[in-house]
Amino acid sequence: MKQNHIPRTRVKICGLTRVSDIAAVVAAGADAVGFVFHPASPRAVTPEQAAGLCRALPPFVTAVGLFVDASAETIDATLEQAPLDLIQFHGNESPEFCSGFGRRWIKALRMRPGIDLAAERERFAGADGLLLDAYEPGRAGGTGQCFDWARIPPDIAPEILLAGGLTPENVAEAIERVRPYGVDVSGGVEAARGLKDPELIFAFMQGVRDGDQRRHQPG
């Protein structure tokens, strides 16, 4: 994600399960939506459901499919049914595996103790970007917890997608402090697991705009 200027912060809202959620996210101005294909998640959808939700998307909103250590056969079968633009690998997938599906992709990294982000960036150089999420043993994501943003090296921060415990209340601070390429939210805009709240979505987007305004202010 190389750029020569500071753009606005891009926003992905993940874990959508209903057409009404799609409508709210699009109306709020999000750049991307995420569909979870991890059966253990309360936000999981089937390829058939995702295909229907994708039909509700207008042009220029990116459809992202999230997989966690899924087999190549499962991913291929999903791609045959759901018109996904981008794949998000959220497990222990290798760079070679991630690049084998003819789609642009991003790699999620959980911020476990001792992780070397510079080395991981080099290892996953073929990715469109790295998504940094909170680490909790035994969970692939969706923890609702923040991690210490100071652990992100300043030279890497402009390239990453920041996730993990973001809410309408803290996203402006996160953007001001980290200055990421984009942010990713799921539980922080939900009324219940898998059910998005339009008011929280709009509040989150306002928080992003506030953060962008603050990050561009001198000093």
UniProtKB/TrEMBL annotation:
Against CDD domains, the record matches this protein to: PRAI
Keywords, ordered alphabetically:
Amino-acid biosynthesis, Aromatic amino acid biosynthesis, Isomerase, Tryptophan biosynthesis
EC number(s) recorded for this UniProt protein? 5.3.1.24
Quick one: a GO biological-process term for this protein? L-tryptophan biosynthetic process
Q: State the reactions this protein catalyses.
A: N-(5-phospho-beta-D-ribosyl)anthranilate = 1-(2-carboxyphenylamino)-1-deoxy-D-ribulose 5-phosphate
Q: Entry's SUPFAM superfamilies?
A: Ribulose-phoshate binding barrel
The molecular function terms of the Gene Ontology recorded here are: phosphoribosylanthranilate isomerase activity
Q: In which pathway does it act?
A: Amino-acid biosynthesis; L-tryptophan biosynthesis; L-tryptophan from chorismate: step 3/5
Sequence ranges assigned to domain N-(5'phosphoribosyl) anthranilate isomerase (PRAI) in this UniProt record: 11-206
Please state what class of enzyme this protein is: isomerase
Similarity annotation: Belongs to the TrpF family.
Q: Which NCBIfam families match?
A: PRK01222.1-4 (NF002298), PRK01222.1-6 (NF002299)
How is this protein named in the record? N-(5'-phosphoribosyl)anthranilate isomerase
Instruction: Name the gene behind this protein.
Output: trpF
